[in-house]
Amino acid sequence: MQAYAAKLIDLIELKAEKIAKQWAVDVRKHNRTPSYSSLPLDRVIERGVDFYRLFRQMSLADVPYEAAKTFSWKYAKECYQEKIPLQEAVYALILLRRNLWLYAEFQGVFTSALEQQQAVESLNRTILMYDYVSYQVIEKYQEMIQNDVDKNIGSIKLVMNNPISSIKNIYKSGLMGILILVACILSYYYHAILGTGVIFTHLFYIPIILAAVWWGKKGIFVAIFLAGLILASHVLFLKAVPFVDDIIRALMFIVIGGVVGWLMDGIKKIEDMYKATI
To answer: Which positions ≥6 away from 234 have C-beta within 8 Å?
Structure first.
């Protein structure tokens, strides 16, 4: 069987570039791998040759599964950097295996040189290698996706998990009540006592954003309350001052509160899905 294995490996290596060229043509025009159509032909062929030469590396390795990683991880990283979707990367592997067995010259030499039992063994070896590579490519893709998610939403998670954000709900509600009370006092002081519409309302964005971060879309009720507060205060105390500016501010409160709340709910869903995959 060792002599057979060496013969099979030699045969695959001998024909590796020809089979890889056939695979490159196939994968670049296949409707299930459209991302490959924009890749340089030489790069695709090189990738195919690496796959077919993996047979020898795995045959000489004490642990074939580990040896497969020399191709799998490189293949996964290159596909990921080229923004090839995972399903296309895996289907390209299917085409690699298919082209190995459909290659006309290889089939002719194979059937004439090897017995039926050895042909079955060669099929098993090919399937085993393909299984190793497919699993490792998917595993590496998942790892890179997780790393990108950690990197891209890391700052947002930092905001969500900082000491203020991690306060228990009862303390959040208490703190929010204090902030709203301060907002009411400021509105009365500036509108009723000073008689001015000076832009102190920028401070209102603190409770609005905190509410959205803590409670998602439900936090918009804080924005609506503060919008109503500033409009009511204007009606009561600033009748001589144009109303347009405060209307715009009130609308901005609701828009900012709604958008941030919607984003935070979306991030929470993504985070939950992300945790489920770990």
So the answer is: 191, 197, 241, 243, 246
